[in-house]
Design goal:
Length: about 130
């Protein structure tokens, strides 16, 4: 655990306890992300490849990791490896949609989307 000092309003200083984790794309994190990404893809969260994006391809029980360089066409069936902030943004988007009831889909699809959101939150809890 680390501590971070910051000012609160009238110049007083507060010490808040924060947890930091070194986030890396391990084989385990990537395997679990593949399940989450599959669920996200099903519900319309797509990835638009940009140069220098990282991705993975499964080779048996392991993954090969690459960076995208003008080859987005060849990335079919590749697994995007977004940065920590993009993952948290996706989670926030799904949470906001759930809170507003803005899915606009029949009940079964809403339950499936909520299950996808829970799956993503569990992944974040385990790896981010």
């Amino acid at each position: 655990m680390t501590y971070r000092d910051f000012e609160v309003g009238s110049g007083t200083t507060c010490r808040e306890r924060r947890r930091f984790r070194n986030f890396t794309w391990t084989t385990e994190a990537t395997a679990d992300w593949e399940i989450v990404w599959s669920a996200l893809w099903r519900f319309g969260i797509k990835w638009e490849w940009q140069n220098s994006d990282r991705y993975a391809r499964r080779y048996g029980d392991t993954y090969n990791f690459y960076a995208c360089h003008n080859d987005a066409v060849r990335l079919d069936m590749a697994l995007p490896l977004p940065g920590q902030s993009a993952i948290l943004d996706i989670n926030e988007y799904l949470s906001d949609e759930a809170a507003s009831g803005g899915y606009g889909h029949p009940g079964d699809l809403n339950r499936d989307r909520d299950a996808c959101r829970v799956l993503l939150e569990k992944w974040i809890e385990n790896y981010v």
